[in-house]
């Protein structure tokens, strides 16, 4: 985005020169216009949005994050709001309604056409976090008894209001899914051939399945659309690849934020109020501060040991830092493997054994370096303490870091919650205990 042009737009807004602002904004393409809207305060965002041509405004609205859509609706007139909500796809509309106050959401639903109300109600009927909540009920379904010519006509009749026509589900007489046909195959086949002869087996997902699991499957199978069925294999919607990408992006953002000890912002950073950023971090910091008291308590318990050999305190940051980093590496690796489906909760034994071996090898490398480096400067007894501690801490940290995400998954808790911050706190305290016990044994303290 052209910084100088953006500054001229902001200056035009301050001076209420709306004609100048409109001319500048229209010099950009849709992506830059959306980026500008995301960076503006709510009041200015509404002004700039009203200056966009109707078609451009509708496209820009769909691209905004859901919280920003909600803020924009509160700043627009009722007529504009109803038009925007009506133009959204049912799955996008449900996400927007979830962001709005209940009374506002009900009022917007009432103004929708009966057909749009039914489609929206179908999606809203599924639990939050399920693929049913993210699917689109607007699809073109073919009857297996159709000829290819009839199928083409059915696609053309719905081409303007369907979410996608590149992957076409085929239903039997009871509206159960019996296969899928690609648009390319449909166009390349003789018109008199029956659709039943060209369909292929469909990969499906049940509507109550987790949205992230369904999105991952859509990505793994490289599907343009994943059919969503109910408990009787009747088709209720489709998850398109772009919606699957949105789900995976949200999951990735959530995992990254929680691994770093914060809650996801769920909106662009520059448009997030400072208070919201503080709220996303403060709870985690308080929890970690309470956890850090374990480290303080350990130091109090071994205070006498430190007084006898003050040099031991010099290496505390090295040891707890190494342990925390080792545990974080293991947790990040296993959490990612969980997301990709490479490991499952039942693999906890195999993962623990593997990470124990990884930790032992890492600890042997670091411990040897610690033994030689510290031994040459502070004496071989102190070097032995540091080497053995590094070996033990690496084994402990890698094992705990690898197991904790699997335990979280078994408890149906987000694995990222049990990741880096909590592992660091745990390893800090346990690593110090190991350190002082080894020092007491080797040095006779």
UniProtKB/TrEMBL annotation:
Annotated membrane-spanning segments are 358-380, 386-408, 420-443
* Locations listed in the record: Cell membrane; Membrane
The domain of life is: Bacteria
Oligomeric state and partners?
Homodimer.
Gene (name only) = mgtE
What is the originating organism of this protein? Kocuria aegyptia
Q: How does it sit in the membrane?
A: Multi-pass membrane protein
Q: Which UniProt keywords apply?
A: CBS domain, Cell membrane, Magnesium, Membrane, Metal-binding, Transmembrane, Transmembrane helix, Transport
Protein name per UniProt: Magnesium transporter MgtE
Q: What is the lineage of its organism?
A: Bacteria, Bacillati, Actinomycetota, Actinomycetes, Micrococcales
Among NCBIfam families, the record links this protein to: mgtE (TIGR00400)
Record-linked Pfam families: CBS (PF00571), MgtE (PF01769), MgtE_N (PF03448)
What is the role of the protein in this entry? Acts as a magnesium transporter.
Similarity annotation: Belongs to the SLC41A transporter family.
The residues covered by the CBS domain are 135-197, 198-256
């Amino acid at each position: 985005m052209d910084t100088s042009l953006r500054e001229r737009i902001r200056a035009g807004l301050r001076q209420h020169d709306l004609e100048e602002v409109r001319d500048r904004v229209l010099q950009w393409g849709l992506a830059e216009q959306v980026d500008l809207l995301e960076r503006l305060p709510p009041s200015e965002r509404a002004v700039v949005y009203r200056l966009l041509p109707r078609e451009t405004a509708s496209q820009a609205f769909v691209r905004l994050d859901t919280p920003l859509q909600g803020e924009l609706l509160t700043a627009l007139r009722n007529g504009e709001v109803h038009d925007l909500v009506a133009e959204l796809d049912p799955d996008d509309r449900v996400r927007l309604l979830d962001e709005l106050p209940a009374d506002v959401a009900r009022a917007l639903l009432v103004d929708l056409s009966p057909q749009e109300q039914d489609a929206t109600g179908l999606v809203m009927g599924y639990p939050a976090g399920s693929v049913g909540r993210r699917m689109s009920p607007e699809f073109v379904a073919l009857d297996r008894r159709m000829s290819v010519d009839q199928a083409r006509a059915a696609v053309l009749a719905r081409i303007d209001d369907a979410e996608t026509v590149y992957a076409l589900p085929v239903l039997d007489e009871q509206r159960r899914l019996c296969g899928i046909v690609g648009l390319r195959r449909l166009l390349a086949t003789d018109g008199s051939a029956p659709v039943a002869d060209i369909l292929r087996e469909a990969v499906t997902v049940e509507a109550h399945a987790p949205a992230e699991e369904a999105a991952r499957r859509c990505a793994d199978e490289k599907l343009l659309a994943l059919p969503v069925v109910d408990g009787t294999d009747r088709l209720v919607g489709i998850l398109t690849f772009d919606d699957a990408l949105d789900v995976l992006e949200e999951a990735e953002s959530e995992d990254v934020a929680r691994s770093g000890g914060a809650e996801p912002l769920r909106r662009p950073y520059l448009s997030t109020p400072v208070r919201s950023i503080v709220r996303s971090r403060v709870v985690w910091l308080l929890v970690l501060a309470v956890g850090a008291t374990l480290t303080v308590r350990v130091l109090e318990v071994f205070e006498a040991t430190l007084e006898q050999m003050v040099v031991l305190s010099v290496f505390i940051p090295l040891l707890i830092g190494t342990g925390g980093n080792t545990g974080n590496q293991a947790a990040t690796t296993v959490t990612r493997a969980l997301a990709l489906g490479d490991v499952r909760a039942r693999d906890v034994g195999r993962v623990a054994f593997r990470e124990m071996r990884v930790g032992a090898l890492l600890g042997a490398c670091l411990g040897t370096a610690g033994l030689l480096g510290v031994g040459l400067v502070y004496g071989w007894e102190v070097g032995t303490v540091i080497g053995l501690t590094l070996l033990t801490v690496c084994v402990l940290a890698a094992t705990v870091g690898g197991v904790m995400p699997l335990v979280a998954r078994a408890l149906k808790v987000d694995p990222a919650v049990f990741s880096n911050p909590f592992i660091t706190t745990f390893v800090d305290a346990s690593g110090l205990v190991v350190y002082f016990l080894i020092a007491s044994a080797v040095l006779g303290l």
